[in-house]
Structure formats: C-alpha cells, structure tokens
C-alpha cells in the first residue's frame, strides 16, 4: 500500500516532459493544498520536489463513459474495483453511466442511493450522469439540481430491462427540459429499424461467426440515428453528445453539422481505434460491443476524424460483466456486449497514436481536456494549469507493456487486450496532490470523492 499523506503547504512535480495545453516542455508544477498554483520553468526554493525525470507528466485522465454498475449489480463491477482500475490506468475522474445499476439513475432518489453506495470506496473522483428514459421527463431538471452532469439515453434496447430506450415522442417531450438545464444529452446512436432489417436477412446464419454479428449491427443503424439527432439538435438547440461512434461513414454529416454551429460533440473508444473486424475470430465474444468493431479501413477513418477534430474525445465505455455472460467460444447474439478497459486504455491509445504521428498533447486533449469540458468540469480538471486540481499521471511512453491478467484491476479479468504488447506504462497516478497509485501499489484508503462534494 502507498502511504496516504496530506501534501505539505507546497510541493512541486518536475519533469522534462510536462504536457501542458500549450505543448510539452520541461516544467515544475507547484501544488498547494491539492491545487496547482503555478507552472514554472524550475522548482522554487523550499518546496518538496518529486522529480519524474524524462517520464511524461500528463494531466489526470477523465473518462466520461464508465459503467460502474453499483448498486444492484456489484458482482459485475463496483465503485471499489472500477476506481482502482481507473487509478492504475491514469484516470483521476470517472463519470458513471445510469443504466446498469439498480435502481437506475433516473430520479433524485436513485441518485442518492448511488451516492450512499459509493461512499468511502473510490480511489479516484467520480460524478454521475442521469438517465433520460420513457416517462421520466419530470425528473430531468430535479436531477440537474441534484448534481448530475448530464443525461444518457438509448434509441435502441440498452440490454437492461429497467432502463428503457426512449422513442421519438418521449425524447421530444424531454428535450425542452434538457435544453433548459444546459447539460449535455449523451446518446447511444443506433436505431432499431436497420438492426431488425439486417437480422431478418440473417435467418439461419451462424451466430458464432463475428461476420454475422457485424452484419446484424450495420452502419445504417448509426447513420440513421445520427441524422435524426442532428435534426433534433437543430430544432431544440440542446448540447448533443454522440457516444462511442463506431462508423466513420458518419463523419461527413457530423462535420457539416458542426460547421453549421450546432452544439454537437463526438466520442469514440480505444477498441474502435485499435481493433478491427478482420482480426476477430469466430467465437471470440470478448470482442463483442455495440456498435460493433468494424473494418480496418473504418478504423483508419476514425483516426482521421480525430485528426480533423470531428471526433472530440476518446472514452473507454468500460462495460464489464461476469465472465459467464460473455459466452466464450459461443454465439455472439447470446453474449453480453461490452469491453472493459480502464486499466489499459492509455497504453492502447498511445500505441496507436504514436504510430500515426500523434503526440502526448493529443492524448491529453482527447482523454483529459475534452472529456472534462463535456462533463462541465474544465475549471477543476483536464489540464496542467493554475487553479486546476493537482491530478497527474506519471507515464513512461517508451516502455513496453505486455498485458496479462494481473494488469487488469477491475473485478473480472476479461479483456480483448490480453496477450498484446503495448507501449506506455502508467507509473504513478496523483489525485489532488496525493498518490492514489504508485509503482503497482494502491493508496492506503480510498480518497476519491464525488464532484458535487468538491469545492
């Protein structure tokens, strides 16, 4: 265990590669009471110095798309295991999705139950999204006042019966309140119609084959949903966020919508940027997610979307389940769809980003600054800058990493990345000036808090 101590009045983190909003440079980051008070060329006299040498000093990563599943499905994950995995992966902030817990976070009462479940269990800071489901329109504004950072909805069956998908009529009933709140609406953008039509054409197909599953969730399901959402955004002028974009074919319409000035942001995920359909074996249900991992050519299109800025950020969509629910070696239509990656996401992203000529500044923008802005936390986290929380990651970008089960700190050691050689190792994660994770060991006691409690 790492001894947890309150920082002295002033401490200083030094590196030859401090990743600031202006670029990477040698710097000394001065911290007082858990907050960055200066970013200087050299450490001031009298401060306690933590010298990270040539290892990069990144801002703490922010993951706005995490399924913690507690309360109610803690056997799937939970605040303790999810936030430990986050700390080991360089994340200092996670935002929990509202659908896999029981009760679902669709009312203030259910939010309070979640808060009670999280108390004293978190190794990193957290916040909650609320849910927008059929019939909960009257709860939208109370949830905002109670501290959710925005809302999540599904246009297709989400996999859990208690969190309903929302139809067009109910969504339009909710949108005036969502727009009034000023908070973003995060949408799983697939429509059921194209999926049903595709599945009808697959009668008698072998569902052990990944090609069958891929054909069952066609690009059109995403494209039709995104076109529908752009129209609603134009009408109601709410903040629209497209989660886990998997098809690069949507980029032209998203580019045009952004050029029009519509308040739209877009995320994709490490698995869409690293994996490809061509490499997924039949029966390899550990790769199942929705929307599905598409072709290698599509993957490169998503990278171009990041390069251009049409895609704003990268989130994990950490969605674990008990191993038996993945139906290993079995049918894709019977397996749970979700990939857990909190402990590996930074290495996955850096491996792919570096190979394409991107920098650590890009990683910090995609995985810290832009997610913090989406969540409305940019005044507190997301950058190495004066006034932000002293949330840091010590990252060795040139170190090799072979992914084994002991690298996965979430509850169930299931991952499509097992056996892969990646680049970049998280050595230390600092939360508000105090190490939460250091050289493979966790802090003595969980000090993570909900952002609603942090001034």
From TrEMBL:
Entry keyword annotation includes Membrane: no
Pathway the protein contributes to: Nitrogen metabolism; (S)-allantoin degradation; allantoate from (S)-allantoin: step 1/1
Superkingdom per UniProt: Bacteria
This protein's record includes keyword Membrane: no
InterPro entries attached to this UniProt entry: Allantoinase (IPR017593), Amidohydro-rel (IPR006680), DHOase/Allantoinase_Hydrolase (IPR050138), Dihydroorotase_CS (IPR002195), Metal-dep_hydrolase_composite (IPR011059), Metal_Hydrolase (IPR032466)
Sample GO molecular function, one term: cobalt ion binding
Keyword annotations of the record: Hydrolase, Metal-binding, Zinc
EC numbers: 3.5.2.5
Biological process, per Gene Ontology: allantoin catabolic process; purine nucleobase catabolic process
SUPFAM superfamilies associated with the record: Composite domain of metallo-dependent hydrolases, Metallo-dependent hydrolases
Cofactor(s) the protein needs: Zn(2+)
GO cellular component: cytoplasm
Coiled-coil intervals: none
A Pfam family per the record: Amidohydro_1
Domain spans labelled Amidohydrolase-related: 57-433
Family: Belongs to the metallo-dependent hydrolases superfamily. Allantoinase family. Belongs to the metallo-dependent hydrolases superfamily. DHOase family. Class I DHOase subfamily.
Function: Catalyzes the reversible cyclization of carbamoyl aspartate to dihydroorotate.
NCBIfam families reported in the protein's UniProt record: allantoinase
The name this protein goes by in its record: allantoinase
Organism lineage string: Bacteria, Pseudomonadati, Acidobacteriota, Terriglobia, Terriglobales
